[in-house]
């Protein structure tokens, strides 16, 4: 997540350099040739770039709205993961009974809770294309890690393990039948959230729209100087460059926002959120030492 | 689903060829006649095409938004099918008990899980107008296939079969009463998702809007050259053609996106999603061999 | 539901004839008088109709969006009715037990399922202001019809009857307590859907907006020719008429779409949907003969 | 709710009289002074009012959309109250058992159902700032009225009373444990709907936006005549007055719509809806005499 | 929450003073230099600021919509907290049984209800960066306060305590198994609402959009005077300043609205809402003395 601390203009600008220089060179070329008054004869009315400007604004507005929706949905889904993680542990604590001759209740709750923490880290890293096992080995038993290694989808496997343990808890009468179903419902919600993240990750924003925005902006840049030839010479260069840069900037921002799980500074802050979940859960389990909050980098937090 | 790999401009352009040539011929005709300066006398102010341009932009914006909503809803529904398929199998695994003198638990779970995989393939193919039984015969028993053949709606019949088996599981005490209801709830959600797909498939986008967008663009193209007659001769041809092509391009993109189950490259990738579900479920059932991920074609994935 | 088969331009045009001729006569009048060059002195700048055009576009955009939302919500609600009808019957089939010395299980299930089919037809016809009992008499017992005749709201009474039968099923131990509650939940959803239809039917779209759109378009038509007087004589007539007709056309389309239960070709296709439900349910009950799909009319389906 | 019967232009116009006359006087003043050609020297280009017109249209569009959302949400919430009221009574009828030596079942159901009717009237009147007890005394026992008088929030107290009776019904074995929870769930939904109404009632629409729309329209009116001085003298007065009136009209409509519980003709029709609920519920309880539908007033229904 | 009582123009204006003076000084500078007719030679057509005006309007429209959504969602979440708080207490009252030899039922209910009141105050204050324990010490036992002090997230700890007490209530047979699960569901909803508030609080609105709006407005201000040089001298200063101020005003309003938990007058009125909850709950518990409603300040309520 980009923070407000340092103005992130250059973060985006870095990504539209090519377009910036293309427009600048084009405008400079037009300016030079225009000195020879060749273009005078093909001046076009400014209403044409105006119409293009309106069309670009609207299609950029659509683009921006949809990109924002994806970004915000990603954040909402991770908010739901926070909520359901806390609820899962709270339910474990307020449902589970201690049983004679069995594993101690606290050990049971800790095992499931740690798997839940691991689920968050694993999901976040898998979405970002990192090794999902990397951050979670210390949270799991060797047996669990062995089980995970047989699955492509590690986070799904963690839910499976927790479901399996709830089943034996029912058999051992640690939980009653309603409590098992209620805990299962919470796992269902986590399963939904996980699927939603994968949907956002795997669905390409309709490429045809990305293209048409780009083409419209280039059309606009190509035609605009012919509408200005009667007015000014070199002053039109920064003018057109500035407007075109703004349009490209908005477009690029949308492109970056629409994919929030790419291991980039503009990502949804899944590592930081997972850490918060870890802290909350460990405090709920009365751990004395909890990890620090995730540190923000220079102008972003992962 | 169209991928980002190869720019899909020609994919859409192919579909607006007629409009492209109509506009080009019209503009060329206007250009030729204009040589005779006949049109000079009926020049119209550019504010008229401007107003039309604003109106087109807005109605196209509406069109684009609604088409995108249908497309995105289709994808969300299939995301929900992924989630509920995984949850269904996870619930089977964490609810079902083994029973003496009955079918082995693993056989029971496998039968229902395979039907769930079959449900996804059958729904996807039925929506695309293909034979829904084609991909699923190996997943079902002969008895099940016989049952399906008596139903118009194969995917609904598969849910019915799974519901029936849950009933006998309750009778045999494989499941308790809450667990049956909870599993039934998951089948309900699948039934909802299936109905949502059918709704998107069967509801024609209001044809009156499609028409008005088309008419507005043609009006725009007809009037625009009369606003330009004072300015330029042959140069106006590519100008008007380019702008009109862009408008038609956006409209066509919306038309293609609004129907995501037509067995076309722009479809929701239901085959690929069903394959992912198959892989996930088979790994959850501890199968050693799982199928490969669905292969992407040149510039799209089905 | 209007189909794509025959272009429905005349369907809408039929409804804006008055506006069309009003504008045409007005423009012809202006044209005639203008011959006398009386209007020259009161020409107004085209920026004024431009501003009006922008304002009309935006308010028409709002109008169109809200009308579409109502139309789409109506379709979604009927989609939910399809889903819940299927779920209701599937649940009956997978929950109900046969009981000794009682009504046969199949008779019990059929009675409730047929009432569910009747619910769909009755709701659809009631929304359209038709006699809700007309299509459903063959599906119900005489006793049920007698009961319905005492209620203003026939579809609500049908849910009541099904609820009553579920109660006796619980008493007779045909269903267990969870199953009754789960089936009741499905009836609840049907009750919600029914209420949503009635809400759409009974809520007048804010009349003040309908009015302001109309007034804005008329203002636009009145002022536009004064902006064009410097340009063209008779050619302005088709120009203004065409643009005004488009605006009225869009407005009329919104007006027609916002009320989808009026027994008009543009209605939500409730009869056809109810028929689909009947076919699905009868196949689920293993009926040999199921009715045909509802036939589409010339350019629409009811 | 305003009806379509009588055009409600004057209903709104009544509320923008001040603005109308302010603009008219201003324009007349400008017109008079302009006779002296003093303003000629400070004519401004029409592009400025155009930009303002675009900005006003967009901010008015935002305003209108949000006001409509509040209005529509209010209607949706009351639709949900209709649905949940019917479901509540249907559930009472299909859950409750008769008990020996206790209150008759019908008396029990009637007491709770009448409280539900009372809840609707009380909520509607409380939202409108009327005495919530006024319409409901005949529906409640003296004891209940005494209880209500001790509560600021009468409708919440009615839910509390029904909850209390469900508890004794469980103790008396009139309901089983699942049925109590299911009925409690319905009361929960009613509690949610009631809170949503209070939210809409108590949340002031951001006053800063109301202000900025107003200021923008005034800026527009102030600058527009200076853009027109080259064109026409007295004819500009009705022109500017008409456009400004339309903008104020749209704004006022939004202001009226955003607060739907003010005991005004534009309110959500809560009295009429409550009456419909009363009729439905009394018919469900097999009452012979049910009240008439609520009468519409001249151009609205409360 | 800002009230309608005193026009809050200066509340916002205070925050855009810097921009206001920057624009004024720039315009005055332009005006002075223009006296020397230096700028004449670089006049630019007004279509350029027009295009910028359209683009600004659209991007500001996006900004405003999203800021409003965050603000409205915050209010909705607190509405849900009101509803769930009332439901929680109503459920306690209609579920809990008195038990022999145990804590009195009323004491039990009061303890949990007071924690619920404390939850609201603590959440509100924590979101605003205040000490969450400050307002709630009188509502909690010493033991509870000790427990809270060990948690970073006090409101989560309160839910944990209530969950723990529900568990012992189940063990003591004060509640049956379904009732515990149903009450737990209500706590789940509160946990969700709390997480949603934290999401809104912790998610920075994409800083890149804030920046681009600002840059677009400055571009507009920089270019606009060059489009006006042919028209007027000093009169253009208030014109440009007024339009620019309006744009900055709209932007600032969005910036303020998007963060509704900053302990500012424009905040969601969480203290006032919590007080309402306290009053409602205490009346439900039949307290004789309830606190007063929260007092509104001069032009806002906290």
Structure characterization notes:
The structure is a homopentamer of 302-residue chains. With 302 residues, the first copy, chain A, is an all-alpha fold. Chain A has one domain. Chain A has 10 helices and no strands. Chain A has helices at 9-13, 17-35, 47-95, 105-127, 142-149, 154-171, 177-202, 207-228, 236-257, 270-284. In chain A, α3 (47-95) runs antiparallel to α4 (105-127), α5 (142-149) packs across α6 and α8 packs antiparallel against α9. The first copy, chain A, is elongated. Chains D and E meet through α3, α6, α7 and α8 of D and α1, α3, α7, α9 and α10 of E.
Secondary structure elements and pairings:
5 copies of one chain form a homopentamer.
Chain A: H1 9-13, H2 17-35, H3 47-95, H4 105-127, H5 142-149, H6 154-171, H7 177-202, H8 207-228, H9 236-257, H10 270-284
Helix pairs in contact in A: 2-9, 3-4, 3-7, 3-8, 3-9, 3-10, 4-6, 4-10, 5-6, 6-7, 8-9
Oligomer: homopentamer
Strand content of chain A: under 5%
Return the structural class of chain A. mainly alpha
Averaged pLDDT of chain A, please? 88
Rg of chain A (C-alpha, Å) = 27 Å
Largest beta sheet of chain A, briefly? none
Overall morphology of chain A: elongated
Domains of chain A, number: 1
Order of helices and strands of chain A: HHHHHHHHHH
How helical, in percent, are the residues of chain A? 55-70%
Using a beta-carbon cutoff below 8 angstroms, give the protein chain pair with the largest interface and the number of residues from each chain. Answer: D-E, 58 and 64 residues
Cα separation of the termini of chain A: 6 Å
């Amino acid at each position: 997540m980009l923070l407000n601390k340092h103005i992130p203009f250059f973060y985006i600008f870095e990504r539209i350099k090519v377009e910036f220089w293309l427009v600048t060179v084009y405008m400079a070329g037009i300016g030079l040739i225009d000195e020879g008054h060749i273009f005078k004869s093909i001046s076009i009315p400014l209403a044409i770039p105006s119409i293009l400007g309106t069309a670009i604004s609207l299609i950029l507005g659509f683009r921006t709205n949809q990109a924002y929706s994806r970004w915000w949905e990603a954040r909402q889904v991770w908010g739901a993961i926070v909520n359901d993680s806390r609820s899962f542990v709270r339910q474990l604590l307020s449902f589970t009974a201690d049983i004679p001759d069995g594993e101690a209740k606290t050990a049971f709750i800790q095992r499931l809770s740690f798997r839940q923490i691991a689920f968050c880290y694993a999901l976040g890293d898998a979405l970002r294309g990192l090794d999902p096992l990397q951050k979670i080995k210390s949270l799991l038993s060797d047996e669990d890690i062995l089980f995970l290694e047989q699955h492509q989808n590690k986070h799904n496997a963690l839910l499976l393990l927790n479901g399996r343990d709830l089943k034996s808890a029912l058999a051992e009468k640690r939980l009653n039948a309603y409590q098992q179903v209620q805990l299962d419902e919470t796992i269902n919600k986590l399963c939904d959230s996980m699927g939603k993240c994968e949907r956002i990750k795997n669905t390409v924003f309709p490429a045809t729209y990305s293209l048409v925005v780009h083409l419209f902006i280039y059309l606009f840049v190509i035609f605009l100087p012919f509408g200005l030839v009667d007015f000014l010479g070199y002053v039109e260069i920064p003018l057109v460059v500035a407007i075109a840069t703004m349009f490209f900037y908005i477009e690029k921002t949308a492109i970056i926002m629409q994919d929030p799980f790419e291991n980039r500074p503009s990502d949804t802050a899944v590592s930081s959120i997972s850490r918060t979940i870890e802290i909350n859960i460990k405090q709920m389990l009365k751990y004395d030492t909890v990890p620090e909050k995730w540190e923000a980098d220079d102008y972003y937090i992962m």
